[in-house]
């Protein structure tokens, strides 16, 4: 009887139903979170261990590299004829000074180029009483050298003197390289390389020697070196080690090991598991406490909201699943779908961001933006902040001047150097810096000039030393003039690349202002012509005048064109006019321009540019007059293209811009004029309508239908479908099936 009453209350009391369902929704994710956190912390521990393993492997490789160089240097000293001759001389007061000086010079030359941090010093012992070299200085005084001599003599006792070997002396690791006589049999002395143990401790322990121990173990299991010897009683010689790298868990200790490729030594790091995960344990307790606190607060809020508003969850259902049944199963499905869709959207945005940023810079540096408003909107979408009023462009390259001459190794090295340069620039400059790759060798750096960025020589000086030290290459630099408008960055880009052409090994930094007069050709870059064509077709007389003023300044103030060069420049302008309008309207203007070119030295160049302004202005007006008719036809072509290519997942403003050779902003404007709605909404509605037909007329899976209508992911398709139709695709298919079944009955 009691259970029936509870069921009755649950079914008819909305407040109780909401409370119970809310508790279930809260408790289930809580259990999942507890399990997830447990798995997460297990994975975190493995990640920490693998991070330590990678660090140990790196340190092992560094030590191997250092030891190899030390072995080579010690062998060179021991095999040196001057050192062997000095070792064979009898001790007397009349030692041959010349031989001694040659030996010391030879040793110093070898050690001078031995730049390794592992080496503390080098002592050369000769098997004659009171006769040894320390740091390149010869000691012969018996009274002052007696103790040192005894130490040196003791190093060779009990070992095979004719073989090079390692030795631990007073907790200092040493490499002993015997010096053999000219007969190749008699032992005349030894080169003793003392290792820097502080460097070894710092490299492996990173100043964490209180909670960690380091063991250097030979192949037979004997320990060559150990820190914190008293902190563990484990016999490490009995531990079975497999492979070149790994880890072993012994109780509360974790042992990470790496095997040297140089001498088969084993490097072991031993640390306490509790100490290693100390910070994670605190986080674990904090997370569990937060979850419990969230549950308590959630229960209180659920009670308060359910009593005050009755059924607040209905508002959520009405917004997302208006026709679905009100139960906890549907609620959980809805929440999971929302979270999954949002995460998928974030992942898509994150993956597309670098491509969008590159596309933005591509348009910016080619001068393809119609106006600053379009530029600012797109910059905001890709995450760029356009706040500066003054810009400068740096162009640089590594190694080969021609991309076709570069080898794969060179390109890889250049890419690494480019990443290093990016990091150093961002470290030096506090403002946002943009990078653009022209090709694998030439890169552009766009600087907002607000302070230190206005002094490129200081920036380059800061970077140059680091690149030379790390990669042994010197980049060449070209620097543009200041650019006062972000819309004019295409010009600064051309200037920086032009300056880079003059950079060489003897002159690594070249400013455009210094080489403009040295250029042998006239100024008429590709981006200039594209901008001129675009502004003419748009009827923007102000922009046309600014471009012509730029041409006048570059060709006749910065440069001094010859008659031959001026004729070529005139032909370029005429060619551009013909590209814009092939009608007879161009002919009368070209005749005037050619007539001026014939009398080049007799007339003022300003009159020539006045003719150009008139020609481009008239043709621009003509283009605007015919634009209406062309626009109407273009509108229809755009809509027809979308209607037939809606299933292409790459369909977008960029695709239409490339297909019809117009800007994305112009595509968007024309499409809205034709359809009365924006491009994205039209395509979305078109695809959903086509998918409805497929749901009704075919038995394709929902995933396949999503692909057929142009969606890359099922999550995006479902989100769009619910937005347009108010129900999910599966619900619509079920409704269609029910109607079809009723029709048959």
Proportion of beta-strand residues: 5-15%
Question: Based on CA inertia axes, which overall geometry fits?
Answer: flat
What is the second-level CATH architecture of one domain?
2-Layer Sandwich
CATH superfamily of one domain: Reverse transcriptase/Diguanylate cyclase domain
In the CATH scheme, the class of one domain would be Alpha Beta
The structure class reads: alpha+beta
The largest β sheet comes out as: 6 strands, antiparallel
* Unreliable residue runs: 141-150
Q: Within the CATH hierarchy, at the fold level, what is the topology of one domain? A: Alpha-Beta Plaits
* Mean of pLDDT: 76
Rg (C-alpha, Å): 39 Å
Strands ordered across the widest β-sheet: 3-2-1-6-5-4
| Helical proportion, percent range | 55-70%
Summarize the helices and strands and which ones pair or pack.
Layout: H1 2-12, H2 14-79, H3 81-88, H4 97-112, E1 119-126, E2 132-134, E3 137-139, H5 142-155, E4 165-169, E5 172-180, E6 187-195, H6 197-205, E7 212-217, E8 223-226, E9 245-250, E10 253-259, E11 266-272, H7 273-276, H8 278-309, H9 313-320, H10 328-365, H11 372-382, E12 391-397, H12 408-428, E13 434-437, E14 442-448, H13 456-471, E15 476-479, H14 489-500, E16 509-511, H15 512-515, H16 526-538, H17 541-558, H18 563-580, H19 585-598, H20 605-645, H21 653-660, H22 664-675, H23 679-697, H24 702-708, H25 714-725, H26 729-744
Parallel strand pairs: 15-16
Antiparallel strand pairs: 1-2, 1-6, 2-3, 4-5, 5-6, 7-8, 7-11, 9-10, 10-11, 12-14, 12-15, 13-14
Helix pairs in contact: 2-8, 3-4, 10-11, 12-13, 16-17, 16-18, 16-20, 17-20, 18-19, 19-20, 20-22, 21-22
Keywords: DNA-binding, Membrane, Transcription, Transcription regulation, Transmembrane, Transmembrane helix
Organism: Lachnotalea glycerini
InterPro entries: Homeodomain-like_sf, HTH_AraC, HTH_AraC-typ_CS, Tscrpt_reg_AraC-type_HTH
């Amino acid at each position: 009887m009691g259970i029936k009453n509870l069921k009755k209350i649950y079914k008819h009391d909305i407040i109780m139903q909401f409370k119970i369902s809310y508790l279930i929704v809260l408790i289930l994710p809580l259990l999942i979170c507890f399990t997830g956190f447990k798995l997460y912390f297990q994975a975190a521990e493995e990640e920490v261990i693998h991070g330590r393993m990678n660090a140990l492997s790196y340190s092992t490789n560094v030590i191997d590299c250092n030891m190899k160089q030390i072995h080579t240097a010690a062998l060179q000293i021991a095999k040196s004829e001057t050192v062997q001759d000095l070792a064979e001389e009898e001790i007397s007061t009349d030692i041959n000074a010349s031989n001694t000086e040659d030996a010391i010079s030879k040793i110093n030359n070898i050690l001078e180029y031995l730049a390794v941090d592992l080496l503390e010093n080098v002592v050369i012992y000769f098997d004659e009483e009171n006769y040894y070299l320390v740091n390149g200085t010869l000691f012969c005084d018996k009274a002052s050298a007696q103790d040192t001599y005894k130490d040196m003599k003791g190093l060779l006792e009990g070992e095979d003197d004719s073989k090079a070997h390692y030795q631990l002396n007073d907790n200092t690791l040493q490499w002993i390289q015997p010096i053999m006589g000219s007969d190749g049999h008699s032992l005349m002395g030894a080169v003793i390389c003392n290792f820097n143990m502080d460097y070894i401790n710092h490299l492996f322990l990173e100043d964490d020697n209180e909670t960690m121990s380091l063991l250097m173990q030979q192949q037979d299991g004997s320990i060559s070196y150990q820190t914190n010897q008293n902190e563990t009683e484990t016999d490490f010689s009995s531990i079975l080690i497999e492979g070149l790298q790994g880890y072993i868990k012994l109780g509360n200790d974790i042992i990470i090991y790496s095997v040297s490729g140089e001498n088969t030594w084993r490097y072991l790091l031993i640390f306490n598991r509790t100490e290693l995960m100390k910070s994670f344990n605190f986080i674990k307790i904090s997370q569990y406490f937060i979850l419990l606190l969230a549950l308590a607060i959630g229960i209180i809020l659920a009670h308060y909201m359910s009593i005050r508003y009755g059924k607040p969850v209905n508002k959520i259902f009405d917004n997302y699943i208006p026709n679905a049944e009100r139960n906890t199963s549907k609620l959980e499905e809805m929440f999971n779908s929302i979270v999954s869709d949002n995460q998928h959207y974030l992942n898509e945005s994150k993956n597309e961001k670098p491509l969008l940023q590159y596309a933005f810079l591509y348009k910016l540096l080619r001068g393809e933006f119609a106006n600053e408003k379009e530029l600012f909107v797109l910059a905001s979408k890709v995450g760029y902040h356009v706040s500066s009023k003054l810009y400068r462009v740096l162009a640089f390259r590594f190694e080969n001047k021609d991309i076709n001459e570069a080898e794969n190794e060179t390109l890889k090295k250049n890419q690494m150097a480019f990443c290093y340069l990016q990091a150093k620039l961002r470290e030096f400059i506090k403002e946002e810096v943009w990078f653009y790759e022209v090709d694998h060798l030439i890169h552009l750096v766009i600087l907002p000039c607000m302070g230190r960025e206005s002094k490129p020589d200081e920036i380059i000086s800061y970077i140059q030393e680091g690149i030379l030290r790390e990669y042994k290459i010197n980049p060449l630099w070209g620097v543009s003039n200041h650019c006062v408008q972000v819309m004019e960055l295409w010009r600064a880009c051309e200037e920086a690349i032009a300056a880079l052409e003059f950079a060489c090994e003897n002159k690594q930094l070249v400013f455009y202002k210094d080489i403009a007069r040295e250029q042998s050709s006239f100024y008429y870059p590709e981006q200039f012509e594209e901008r001129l064509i675009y502004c003419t077709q748009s009827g923007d007389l102000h922009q046309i005048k600014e471009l012509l003023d730029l041409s006048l300044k570059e060709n006749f103030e910065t440069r001094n064109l010859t008659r031959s060069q001026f004729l070529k420049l005139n032909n370029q302008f005429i060619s551009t006019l013909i590209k814009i309008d092939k009608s007879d309207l161009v002919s009368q203007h070209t005749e005037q321009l050619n007539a001026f070119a014939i009398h080049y030295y007799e007339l003022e160049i300003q009159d020539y540019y006045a003719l150009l302004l008139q020609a481009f202005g008239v043709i621009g007006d003509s283009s605007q007059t015919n634009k209406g008719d062309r626009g109407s036809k273009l509108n229809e072509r755009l809509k027809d293209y979308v209607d037939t290519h809606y299933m292409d997942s790459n369909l977008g403003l960029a695709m239409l811009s490339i297909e019809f050779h117009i800007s994305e902003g112009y595509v968007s404007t024309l499409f809205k004029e034709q359809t009365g709605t924006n491009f994205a909404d039209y395509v979305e509605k078109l695809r959903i309508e086509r998918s409805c037909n497929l749901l009704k007329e075919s038995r394709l899976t929902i995933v396949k239908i999503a692909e057929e209508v142009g969606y890359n992911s099922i999550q995006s398709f479902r989100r769009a479908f619910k937005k347009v139709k108010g129900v999910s695709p599966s619900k619509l298919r079920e409704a269609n099936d029910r109607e079809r079944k009723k029709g048959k009955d």
